[in-house]
Design goal:
Shape: globular
Order of helices and strands: HHHHHHHHH
Helix content: over 70%
Radius of gyration: 18 Å
Largest sheet: none
């Protein structure tokens, strides 16, 4: 049981020495696995919304950008000293976004649209994957140990976390909106 009243250093069991290569390898693997875990979380979240009309514009970006950093959240809990660099956290989130985007693209190419046009796999494995990478990187710029404080103690969500999350969701929502409009106009034939 986690004691939420204990100081953060005690609650997270922060080691006194700098983490080595093995710890960083674990952090990278857990963070990338977050992209896989994010697929499950996004699927559950999207199914619960019932496929509403606004899902591609609002629902999917809100859900996916919250779930893709699951591995980073776990790493922050277990190895906070390995994640002291803001850029490192953002790069780990970008990696999770890349994994998420690759899995999502494979599902679209091989399950949702098996009779796709010839250009479709190239499109799916480039533009949407880049979108997920960029949006996740943006969200990652705002993540640090204070997210755990927000969850565990009910403190205020840090403004930086909120702002970068909203920016990542905005990037994702803008892309989804543009893709839907291009599909409706016949520019992209999905």
């Amino acid at each position: 049981m986690i004691d939420c009243t204990a100081p953060l250093a005690l609650r997270l069991d922060i080691p006194s020495r700098r983490p080595g290569w093995f710890t960083h390898s674990l952090v990278i693997m857990v963070s990338l696995a977050g992209g896989i875990l994010g697929i499950g979380g996004a699927l559950i979240g999207e199914v619960r919304t019932g496929g509403l009309l606004l899902l591609p514009f609002v629902g999917a970006p809100v859900i996916e950008e919250a779930f893709k950093p699951i591995g980073l959240y776990l790493s922050l809990l277990r190895w906070p000293r390995a994640l002291e660099s803001r850029l490192y956290r953002a790069i780990l989130c970008a990696g999770a976004g890349t994994v998420f985007g690759l899995i999502e693209s494979a599902v679209y190419v091989y399950v949702y649209a098996p009779g796709h046009p010839d250009w479709y796999p190239l499109f799916r494995f480039t533009i949407p994957v880049a979108l997920h990478t960029i949006a996740s990187f943006t969200v990652g710029l705002g993540l640090d140990w204070r997210v755990l404080e927000w969850v565990n103690r009910g403190t205020r969500l840090p403004k930086r976390t909120r702002n970068f999350y909203i920016a990542g969701v905005g990037i994702h929502a803008a892309y989804n909106t543009a893709a839907v409009i291009m599909a409706i106009l016949g520019v992209l034939d999905f």
